Task: inverse folding
């Protein structure tokens, strides 16, 4: 369920307390995740005259993220345990009017740089700006949907601008460990016509 996936996702993060004017507020639970039903989703009106509604679009939520990207020698010298190894990265351009397809050529590019096939990538994270956008990428690449966004994507979890890239990559790294998978990729589209992807290898 979405709630179970959200619990898995949040397990990788540390709760934080922030001093507000009148109290100390704890941020250990995501307020975006909430129960729904097919009946409720069917009642939502399309936002742009097409098929996209608030139910199949990612919500803009608050979030912040940081990550350490380091050389293996530095990691070993400092006694750290890496989550995964970065194998390849790519940023590609696509026509702005179809910017949502950006993850597809970016994923192809990182696979080609690593000398592997798409079938070798066991976990795929595509930032879901919209449900139709994710489906377009899935159809373009032809991967088994069971391999993608398997712990819930941005439609379920939310899309914190500026933090989603780290969130996606962290999710992939944790999935590689949890599921015993060798390769995983995180990817996203960007307004203006861009797609980005990073390929990770389990250690």
Result:
């Amino acid at each position: 369920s979405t709630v179970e996936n959200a619990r898995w996702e949040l397990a990788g993060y540390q709760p934080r307390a922030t001093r507000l004017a009148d109290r100390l507020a704890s941020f250990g639970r995501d307020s975006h995740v909430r129960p729904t039903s097919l009946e409720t989703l069917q009642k939502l009106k399309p936002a742009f005259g097409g098929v996209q509604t608030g139910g199949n679009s990612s919500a803009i939520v608050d979030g912040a993220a940081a990550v350490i990207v380091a050389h293996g020698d530095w990691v070993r010298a400092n006694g750290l345990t890496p989550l995964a190894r970065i194998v390849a990265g790519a940023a590609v351009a696509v026509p702005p009017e179809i910017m949502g397809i950006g993850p597809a050529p970016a994923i192809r590019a990182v696979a080609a740089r690593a000398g592997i096939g798409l079938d070798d990538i066991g976990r795929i994270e595509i930032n879901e700006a919209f449900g139709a956008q994710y489906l377009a990428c899935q159809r373009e690449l032809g991967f088994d949907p069971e391999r993608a966004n398997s712990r819930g994507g941005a439609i379920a979890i939310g899309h914190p601008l500026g933090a989603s890239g780290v969130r996606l990559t962290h999710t992939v790294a944790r999935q590689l460990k949890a599921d015993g998978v060798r390769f995983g990729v995180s990817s996203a589209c960007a307004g203006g016509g861009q797609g980005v992807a990073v390929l990770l290898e389990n250690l």
Q: What stands out?
A: The helical segments are 2-10, 38-42, 72-77, 103-114, 131-141, 154-157, 164-179. The chain has one domain: 1-203. Residues 164-179 form the longest helix (16 residues).
